[in-house]
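Hi support team,

I'm opening this ticket because the web form for multi-chain structure prediction keeps timing out on my end. I have pasted the exact lines I submitted so you can reproduce it. The total is 451 residues across two entries, so I didn't expect it to be a heavy job. Is there a limit I'm missing, or should I split the entries? Thanks in advance, R.K.
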Amino acid sequence: MEMRAFDFVSAENADQAVSLLSEHGPNVIVLAGGTDILVDLKHAKHDPDVVVDITRAEDLKGIEVNDEGLRIGALVTHTQIMDDPYIQENFPALVHAAHTIGAVQTRNLGTLGGNLVTCVPSMDSGPALMALEAEVTVAGPDGTRRMGLEEFFVGPRKTVLEHNEVLLDVIIPRKNLGKPTDFLKFGLRKGQALALVNAASALWIGEGNTFKDVKISLGAVAPTVIRAAIAEDFLEGREITPENMAEAGRLAVEDAKPIDDFRASASYRRDLIAVLTKRTLDNAYRLAQGR
Amino acid sequence: MTDVTLTINGEERSASVPPETSLLRLLRDEFYLTGSKLGCDVGDCGACTVIVDGLPVNACLMLAGQVDGRDVVTIEGLATLEDLHPIQKAFEEFASLQCGFCGPGVIIAAKGLLDRNPDPTKEEIKDALSGNLCRCTGYTKMIEAVQDAARILRGEKEAA
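Hello R.K., no limit was hit. The queue was backed up. Here is the completed structure from your submission:
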Protein backbone atom coordinates (compact mmCIF):
# COMPACT_ATOMS: atom_id res chain seq x y z
CA MET A 1 0.00 0.00 0.00
CA GLU A 2 2.03 2.91 -1.29
CA MET A 3 0.86 6.43 -0.65
CA ARG A 4 0.32 8.73 -3.59
CA ALA A 5 2.73 11.63 -3.94
CA PHE A 6 2.18 14.78 -1.90
CA ASP A 7 4.25 17.66 -0.57
CA PHE A 8 5.13 17.72 3.11
CA VAL A 9 5.49 20.87 5.17
CA SER A 10 5.93 21.23 8.91
CA ALA A 11 4.36 23.97 11.08
CA GLU A 12 6.17 25.32 14.14
CA ASN A 13 3.00 26.67 15.76
CA ALA A 14 -0.75 27.01 15.25
CA ASP A 15 -0.54 30.36 13.43
CA GLN A 16 1.95 28.94 10.97
CA ALA A 17 -0.27 25.88 10.48
CA VAL A 18 -3.21 28.13 9.57
CA SER A 19 -1.01 30.13 7.14
CA LEU A 20 0.32 26.99 5.49
CA LEU A 21 -3.18 25.53 5.17
CA SER A 22 -4.49 28.76 3.64
CA GLU A 23 -1.51 29.06 1.31
CA HIS A 24 -1.65 25.48 0.03
CA GLY A 25 -5.40 24.88 0.25
CA PRO A 26 -7.99 23.72 -0.33
CA ASN A 27 -6.62 20.24 -1.08
CA VAL A 28 -4.52 20.06 2.09
CA ILE A 29 -4.64 17.86 5.14
CA VAL A 30 -3.43 18.32 8.71
CA LEU A 31 -1.23 15.55 10.10
CA ALA A 32 -0.96 15.07 13.86
CA GLY A 33 -0.59 11.58 15.38
CA GLY A 34 -1.26 10.00 12.00
CA THR A 35 -2.95 6.87 13.33
CA ASP A 36 -5.99 7.53 11.13
CA ILE A 37 -4.53 9.83 8.46
CA LEU A 38 -1.69 7.53 7.41
CA VAL A 39 -4.17 4.68 7.01
CA ASP A 40 -6.44 6.91 4.91
CA LEU A 41 -3.51 8.07 2.78
CA LYS A 42 -2.50 4.46 2.11
CA HIS A 43 -6.06 3.50 1.21
CA ALA A 44 -6.28 6.61 -0.99
CA LYS A 45 -9.27 7.93 0.93
CA HIS A 46 -7.38 11.21 0.92
CA ASP A 47 -5.33 12.40 -2.03
CA PRO A 48 -4.01 15.73 -0.80
CA ASP A 49 -1.58 17.98 -2.65
CA VAL A 50 0.06 18.98 0.62
CA VAL A 51 0.27 17.42 4.09
CA VAL A 52 0.82 19.96 6.89
CA ASP A 53 2.54 18.28 9.84
CA ILE A 54 1.66 19.99 13.14
CA THR A 55 3.43 17.59 15.52
CA ARG A 56 6.14 20.18 16.27
CA ALA A 57 3.71 22.94 17.29
CA GLU A 58 4.46 23.43 21.00
CA ASP A 59 1.45 25.73 21.52
CA LEU A 60 -0.85 22.79 20.74
CA LYS A 61 0.63 20.71 23.57
CA GLY A 62 0.33 20.68 27.33
CA ILE A 63 -2.29 20.06 30.01
CA GLU A 64 -3.00 22.81 32.55
CA VAL A 65 -5.67 24.29 34.78
CA ASN A 66 -6.27 27.98 34.03
CA ASP A 67 -9.00 30.56 34.72
CA GLU A 68 -11.35 28.88 32.26
CA GLY A 69 -10.89 25.34 33.50
CA LEU A 70 -8.80 22.37 32.41
CA ARG A 71 -7.08 23.00 29.08
CA ILE A 72 -5.85 19.98 27.13
CA GLY A 73 -3.85 20.88 24.02
CA ALA A 74 -5.07 19.24 20.81
CA LEU A 75 -1.72 17.46 20.36
CA VAL A 76 -1.78 15.79 23.78
CA THR A 77 -1.52 12.04 23.21
CA HIS A 78 -3.75 9.41 24.79
CA THR A 79 -0.70 8.20 26.75
CA GLN A 80 -0.10 11.71 28.11
CA ILE A 81 -3.71 11.88 29.30
CA MET A 82 -3.28 8.53 31.06
CA ASP A 83 -0.04 9.70 32.71
CA ASP A 84 -1.17 13.16 33.85
CA PRO A 85 -1.42 13.35 37.67
CA TYR A 86 -4.16 16.03 37.67
CA ILE A 87 -6.36 14.07 35.27
CA GLN A 88 -5.72 10.83 37.19
CA GLU A 89 -6.88 12.53 40.39
CA ASN A 90 -9.83 14.51 39.02
CA PHE A 91 -11.01 12.74 35.88
CA PRO A 92 -10.42 8.98 36.10
CA ALA A 93 -13.03 8.59 33.33
CA LEU A 94 -10.72 10.41 30.89
CA VAL A 95 -7.84 8.11 31.86
CA HIS A 96 -10.04 5.07 31.33
CA ALA A 97 -11.35 6.37 28.00
CA ALA A 98 -7.80 7.03 26.76
CA HIS A 99 -6.75 3.55 27.88
CA THR A 100 -9.48 1.88 25.81
CA ILE A 101 -8.15 3.43 22.58
CA GLY A 102 -6.11 1.19 20.25
CA ALA A 103 -2.97 -0.18 21.86
CA VAL A 104 0.20 1.25 23.42
CA GLN A 105 1.81 2.07 20.06
CA THR A 106 -1.22 3.95 18.75
CA ARG A 107 -1.84 5.67 22.12
CA ASN A 108 1.74 6.98 22.03
CA LEU A 109 1.09 8.52 18.61
CA GLY A 110 -2.62 9.33 18.55
CA THR A 111 -3.78 12.67 19.90
CA LEU A 112 -6.92 13.84 21.67
CA GLY A 113 -7.44 16.49 18.99
CA GLY A 114 -7.02 13.95 16.23
CA ASN A 115 -9.58 11.64 17.80
CA LEU A 116 -12.12 14.49 17.91
CA VAL A 117 -11.32 15.86 14.45
CA THR A 118 -11.46 12.45 12.77
CA CYS A 119 -14.96 12.35 14.22
CA VAL A 120 -15.85 8.70 13.87
CA PRO A 121 -19.08 8.00 15.79
CA SER A 122 -17.34 5.37 17.95
CA MET A 123 -14.51 7.68 19.12
CA ASP A 124 -13.63 6.96 22.73
CA SER A 125 -12.52 10.51 23.60
CA GLY A 126 -15.94 12.02 22.92
CA PRO A 127 -18.48 10.82 25.49
CA ALA A 128 -16.70 11.71 28.74
CA LEU A 129 -15.69 15.12 27.39
CA MET A 130 -19.22 15.81 26.15
CA ALA A 131 -20.71 14.76 29.49
CA LEU A 132 -18.31 17.26 31.09
CA GLU A 133 -19.61 19.98 28.70
CA ALA A 134 -16.16 20.41 27.16
CA GLU A 135 -15.60 23.15 24.61
CA VAL A 136 -13.05 23.32 21.82
CA THR A 137 -11.07 26.24 20.44
CA VAL A 138 -10.65 26.43 16.69
CA ALA A 139 -8.09 28.71 15.01
CA GLY A 140 -8.48 30.00 11.47
CA PRO A 141 -7.38 32.94 9.31
CA ASP A 142 -9.85 35.26 11.10
CA GLY A 143 -8.82 34.33 14.64
CA THR A 144 -10.20 31.82 17.08
CA ARG A 145 -13.70 30.63 17.92
CA ARG A 146 -15.01 28.52 20.78
CA MET A 147 -17.87 26.02 20.72
CA GLY A 148 -19.25 22.96 22.47
CA LEU A 149 -18.57 19.49 21.14
CA GLU A 150 -22.21 19.10 20.02
CA GLU A 151 -21.64 21.99 17.61
CA PHE A 152 -18.13 20.88 16.63
CA PHE A 153 -19.26 17.41 15.54
CA VAL A 154 -21.25 17.58 12.29
CA GLY A 155 -21.51 13.98 11.09
CA PRO A 156 -19.52 10.81 10.56
CA ARG A 157 -15.93 11.95 9.85
CA LYS A 158 -17.12 15.55 9.58
CA THR A 159 -16.58 18.49 11.92
CA VAL A 160 -17.11 22.23 11.47
CA LEU A 161 -13.39 22.65 10.64
CA GLU A 162 -12.68 24.37 7.33
CA HIS A 163 -9.61 23.33 5.32
CA ASN A 164 -7.59 26.21 6.78
CA GLU A 165 -8.59 25.78 10.42
CA VAL A 166 -6.96 23.77 13.20
CA LEU A 167 -8.22 22.57 16.56
CA LEU A 168 -6.19 24.28 19.30
CA ASP A 169 -7.41 22.75 22.52
CA VAL A 170 -10.21 21.26 24.57
CA ILE A 171 -11.46 23.05 27.68
CA ILE A 172 -13.39 21.41 30.50
CA PRO A 173 -15.13 24.36 32.16
CA ARG A 174 -14.10 25.34 35.66
CA LYS A 175 -17.55 24.51 37.11
CA ASN A 176 -16.98 20.87 36.14
CA LEU A 177 -13.47 20.40 37.51
CA GLY A 178 -13.55 17.20 39.53
CA LYS A 179 -17.17 16.47 38.61
CA PRO A 180 -17.77 12.76 39.24
CA THR A 181 -17.79 11.10 35.81
CA ASP A 182 -17.69 7.56 34.52
CA PHE A 183 -16.95 6.18 31.06
CA LEU A 184 -17.62 2.66 29.82
CA LYS A 185 -16.86 1.11 26.47
CA PHE A 186 -18.29 -2.12 25.19
CA GLY A 187 -16.01 -3.64 22.55
CA LEU A 188 -15.41 -7.21 21.48
CA ARG A 189 -11.86 -7.30 22.86
CA LYS A 190 -9.75 -5.23 25.22
CA GLY A 191 -7.09 -4.19 22.70
CA GLN A 192 -7.45 -2.73 19.21
CA ALA A 193 -11.26 -2.81 19.27
CA LEU A 194 -13.80 -0.19 18.29
CA ALA A 195 -16.73 0.46 20.61
CA LEU A 196 -20.05 -1.20 19.80
CA VAL A 197 -21.41 1.39 22.20
CA ASN A 198 -19.64 3.69 24.63
CA ALA A 199 -21.19 5.96 27.23
CA ALA A 200 -20.34 8.49 29.90
CA SER A 201 -22.26 10.07 32.77
CA ALA A 202 -21.32 13.05 34.92
CA LEU A 203 -23.29 14.22 37.95
CA TRP A 204 -23.31 16.00 41.27
CA ILE A 205 -25.39 14.85 44.22
CA GLY A 206 -28.08 17.49 44.99
CA GLU A 207 -30.03 18.08 48.16
CA GLY A 208 -31.97 15.05 49.41
CA ASN A 209 -29.78 12.65 47.39
CA THR A 210 -31.04 13.87 44.02
CA PHE A 211 -29.46 14.03 40.57
CA LYS A 212 -27.96 17.46 39.99
CA ASP A 213 -26.55 18.71 36.66
CA VAL A 214 -26.59 15.16 35.35
CA LYS A 215 -25.16 14.81 31.84
CA ILE A 216 -25.14 11.64 29.76
CA SER A 217 -23.32 11.11 26.48
CA LEU A 218 -23.33 8.17 24.08
CA GLY A 219 -21.05 7.08 21.24
CA ALA A 220 -21.41 4.72 18.25
CA VAL A 221 -25.21 5.01 18.36
CA ALA A 222 -25.81 8.04 16.09
CA PRO A 223 -23.97 9.91 13.28
CA THR A 224 -21.87 11.65 15.96
CA VAL A 225 -21.34 11.33 19.70
CA ILE A 226 -24.56 12.67 21.27
CA ARG A 227 -26.06 13.83 24.55
CA ALA A 228 -28.94 11.75 25.92
CA ALA A 229 -31.21 14.71 26.63
CA ILE A 230 -34.41 12.76 27.29
CA ALA A 231 -32.71 10.66 29.93
CA GLU A 232 -31.02 13.72 31.46
CA ASP A 233 -34.32 15.61 31.72
CA PHE A 234 -35.98 12.66 33.40
CA LEU A 235 -33.25 12.37 36.04
CA GLU A 236 -32.66 16.03 36.89
CA GLY A 237 -33.88 16.70 40.44
CA ARG A 238 -35.12 13.14 40.96
CA GLU A 239 -33.98 10.96 43.80
CA ILE A 240 -30.91 8.83 43.05
CA THR A 241 -32.21 5.26 43.05
CA PRO A 242 -31.34 2.13 41.05
CA GLU A 243 -34.87 2.25 39.56
CA ASN A 244 -34.41 5.80 38.27
CA MET A 245 -31.01 4.89 36.82
CA ALA A 246 -32.59 1.92 35.02
CA GLU A 247 -35.41 4.11 33.69
CA ALA A 248 -32.82 6.63 32.44
CA GLY A 249 -31.15 3.76 30.60
CA ARG A 250 -34.41 2.89 28.88
CA LEU A 251 -35.02 6.55 27.99
CA ALA A 252 -31.47 6.98 26.63
CA VAL A 253 -32.40 4.50 23.91
CA GLU A 254 -34.91 7.08 22.63
CA ASP A 255 -32.12 9.63 22.28
CA ALA A 256 -30.10 7.32 20.02
CA LYS A 257 -30.35 6.15 16.42
CA PRO A 258 -28.21 3.02 16.37
CA ILE A 259 -27.61 1.20 13.09
CA ASP A 260 -27.07 -2.41 12.07
CA ASP A 261 -23.54 -3.07 10.89
CA PHE A 262 -21.02 -5.92 10.84
CA ARG A 263 -20.02 -5.23 14.45
CA ALA A 264 -23.46 -5.38 16.04
CA SER A 265 -27.16 -5.12 15.30
CA ALA A 266 -29.14 -2.01 16.16
CA SER A 267 -31.21 -4.06 18.55
CA TYR A 268 -28.12 -5.26 20.43
CA ARG A 269 -26.83 -1.69 20.55
CA ARG A 270 -30.15 -0.54 22.08
CA ASP A 271 -29.71 -3.10 24.85
CA LEU A 272 -26.14 -1.90 25.40
CA ILE A 273 -27.24 1.74 25.59
CA ALA A 274 -29.65 0.95 28.43
CA VAL A 275 -27.09 -1.09 30.35
CA LEU A 276 -24.11 1.23 29.87
CA THR A 277 -26.15 4.32 30.74
CA LYS A 278 -27.34 2.73 33.97
CA ARG A 279 -23.86 1.51 34.88
CA THR A 280 -22.11 4.82 34.17
CA LEU A 281 -24.70 6.62 36.31
CA ASP A 282 -24.19 4.12 39.11
CA ASN A 283 -20.39 4.35 38.90
CA ALA A 284 -20.43 8.16 38.77
CA TYR A 285 -22.73 8.16 41.83
CA ARG A 286 -20.33 5.88 43.75
CA LEU A 287 -17.48 8.18 42.79
CA ALA A 288 -19.51 11.18 44.00
CA GLN A 289 -20.18 9.48 47.35
CA GLY A 290 -16.45 8.95 47.81
CA ARG A 291 -15.67 12.63 47.27
CA MET B 1 12.03 15.37 -1.54
CA THR B 2 12.13 15.50 2.25
CA ASP B 3 15.53 15.69 3.94
CA VAL B 4 15.79 13.97 7.28
CA THR B 5 18.59 13.61 9.80
CA LEU B 6 17.86 11.47 12.82
CA THR B 7 19.56 9.28 15.39
CA ILE B 8 19.06 5.58 14.77
CA ASN B 9 20.40 3.19 17.39
CA GLY B 10 22.74 5.90 18.66
CA GLU B 11 24.13 6.81 15.26
CA GLU B 12 23.25 9.94 13.25
CA ARG B 13 21.84 9.07 9.82
CA SER B 14 20.59 11.25 6.95
CA ALA B 15 18.48 10.59 3.89
CA SER B 16 16.53 12.39 1.21
CA VAL B 17 13.26 10.60 0.45
CA PRO B 18 9.90 11.32 -1.22
CA PRO B 19 7.52 13.00 1.28
CA GLU B 20 5.14 10.05 1.15
CA THR B 21 7.76 7.73 2.70
CA SER B 22 6.79 6.19 6.04
CA LEU B 23 9.31 5.82 8.87
CA LEU B 24 9.14 2.06 8.27
CA ARG B 25 10.06 2.44 4.58
CA LEU B 26 12.83 4.85 5.56
CA LEU B 27 14.31 2.30 7.97
CA ARG B 28 13.97 -0.67 5.65
CA ASP B 29 14.61 0.79 2.19
CA GLU B 30 17.08 3.61 2.92
CA PHE B 31 19.03 2.25 5.87
CA TYR B 32 18.52 -1.49 5.21
CA LEU B 33 17.35 -2.02 8.78
CA THR B 34 14.95 -4.81 7.87
CA GLY B 35 14.40 -6.08 11.41
CA SER B 36 11.29 -3.90 11.69
CA LYS B 37 8.72 -5.82 9.67
CA LEU B 38 6.13 -4.63 7.22
CA GLY B 39 3.00 -6.52 8.26
CA CYS B 40 -0.40 -4.87 8.02
CA ASP B 41 1.04 -1.39 7.27
CA VAL B 42 -1.96 0.24 9.03
CA GLY B 43 -1.08 0.09 12.73
CA ASP B 44 -2.92 -3.09 13.68
CA CYS B 45 -0.22 -5.78 13.89
CA GLY B 46 2.71 -4.10 15.66
CA ALA B 47 5.37 -5.91 13.59
CA CYS B 48 6.93 -2.52 12.72
CA THR B 49 7.17 -1.30 16.33
CA VAL B 50 10.16 0.96 17.01
CA ILE B 51 10.96 3.29 19.89
CA VAL B 52 10.81 7.01 19.05
CA ASP B 53 12.02 9.40 21.76
CA GLY B 54 11.57 6.66 24.35
CA LEU B 55 8.10 5.45 23.39
CA PRO B 56 7.09 2.43 21.28
CA VAL B 57 5.16 3.45 18.15
CA ASN B 58 4.11 1.93 14.83
CA ALA B 59 6.76 2.93 12.28
CA CYS B 60 4.18 2.44 9.52
CA LEU B 61 2.07 5.29 10.95
CA MET B 62 4.73 8.01 10.88
CA LEU B 63 6.06 9.92 7.90
CA ALA B 64 9.82 10.18 7.51
CA GLY B 65 9.55 13.97 7.74
CA GLN B 66 8.07 13.66 11.23
CA VAL B 67 11.16 11.95 12.67
CA ASP B 68 13.68 14.57 11.51
CA GLY B 69 15.85 15.32 14.55
CA ARG B 70 14.38 12.56 16.67
CA ASP B 71 15.81 9.48 18.35
CA VAL B 72 14.82 6.06 17.00
CA VAL B 73 15.68 2.64 18.41
CA THR B 74 15.01 -0.44 16.29
CA ILE B 75 15.47 -4.14 17.03
CA GLU B 76 18.97 -3.85 15.51
CA GLY B 77 19.88 -1.50 18.35
CA LEU B 78 19.37 -4.02 21.17
CA ALA B 79 22.08 -6.66 20.82
CA THR B 80 25.80 -5.91 21.00
CA LEU B 81 28.46 -7.76 19.05
CA GLU B 82 29.12 -9.81 22.19
CA ASP B 83 25.67 -10.50 23.49
CA LEU B 84 21.93 -10.46 22.94
CA HIS B 85 19.76 -8.09 24.96
CA PRO B 86 18.25 -9.77 28.07
CA ILE B 87 14.77 -9.61 26.50
CA GLN B 88 16.05 -11.32 23.35
CA LYS B 89 17.78 -13.98 25.47
CA ALA B 90 14.63 -14.62 27.45
CA PHE B 91 12.60 -15.01 24.25
CA GLU B 92 15.17 -17.57 23.10
CA GLU B 93 15.22 -19.41 26.41
CA PHE B 94 11.43 -19.62 26.67
CA ALA B 95 11.01 -20.50 22.97
CA SER B 96 8.56 -17.61 22.76
CA LEU B 97 8.64 -17.34 18.99
CA GLN B 98 7.94 -19.78 16.19
CA CYS B 99 8.17 -18.17 12.75
CA GLY B 100 9.57 -15.03 14.35
CA PHE B 101 7.96 -12.44 12.09
CA CYS B 102 6.24 -10.67 14.99
CA GLY B 103 9.31 -11.02 17.24
CA PRO B 104 11.11 -7.71 16.62
CA GLY B 105 7.92 -5.75 17.25
CA VAL B 106 7.03 -7.74 20.36
CA ILE B 107 10.54 -7.42 21.81
CA ILE B 108 10.62 -3.68 21.14
CA ALA B 109 7.17 -3.27 22.71
CA ALA B 110 8.44 -5.22 25.74
CA LYS B 111 11.49 -2.97 25.95
CA GLY B 112 9.21 0.07 25.80
CA LEU B 113 7.32 -1.34 28.79
CA LEU B 114 10.35 -2.34 30.88
CA ASP B 115 12.11 0.98 30.27
CA ARG B 116 9.17 2.73 31.93
CA ASN B 117 8.01 0.03 34.32
CA PRO B 118 10.77 -2.35 35.49
CA ASP B 119 8.40 -4.50 37.57
CA PRO B 120 5.17 -4.93 35.57
CA THR B 121 2.27 -7.19 36.53
CA LYS B 122 1.10 -9.87 34.13
CA GLU B 123 -1.87 -7.64 33.24
CA GLU B 124 0.45 -4.73 32.48
CA ILE B 125 2.54 -6.97 30.21
CA LYS B 126 -0.58 -8.13 28.37
CA ASP B 127 -1.68 -4.52 27.97
CA ALA B 128 1.76 -3.52 26.66
CA LEU B 129 1.73 -6.36 24.09
CA SER B 130 -1.90 -5.93 23.01
CA GLY B 131 -0.78 -3.98 19.95
CA ASN B 132 1.30 -6.90 18.68
CA LEU B 133 -0.24 -9.81 16.83
CA CYS B 134 1.32 -13.28 16.76
CA ARG B 135 -0.29 -15.86 14.50
CA CYS B 136 1.81 -18.94 15.40
CA THR B 137 2.82 -19.49 18.97
CA GLY B 138 0.47 -17.53 21.14
CA TYR B 139 1.30 -15.11 23.86
CA THR B 140 1.82 -17.15 27.04
CA LYS B 141 5.52 -17.81 26.48
CA MET B 142 6.12 -14.23 25.45
CA ILE B 143 4.58 -13.00 28.69
CA GLU B 144 6.72 -15.47 30.66
CA ALA B 145 9.83 -14.30 28.81
CA VAL B 146 9.07 -10.64 29.56
CA GLN B 147 8.59 -11.49 33.25
CA ASP B 148 11.93 -13.32 33.26
CA ALA B 149 13.74 -10.54 31.40
CA ALA B 150 12.33 -8.05 33.92
CA ARG B 151 13.79 -10.10 36.79
CA ILE B 152 17.18 -10.16 35.04
CA LEU B 153 17.11 -6.44 34.25
CA ARG B 154 16.22 -5.69 37.89
CA GLY B 155 19.28 -7.72 38.94
CA GLU B 156 17.21 -10.33 40.78
CA LYS B 157 18.35 -13.15 38.53
CA GLU B 158 21.49 -14.03 36.58
CA ALA B 159 21.16 -14.06 32.83
CA ALA B 160 21.12 -17.56 31.32
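A quick check on our side: Chain A has a mean pLDDT of 96. Let us know if the file doesn't open in your viewer.
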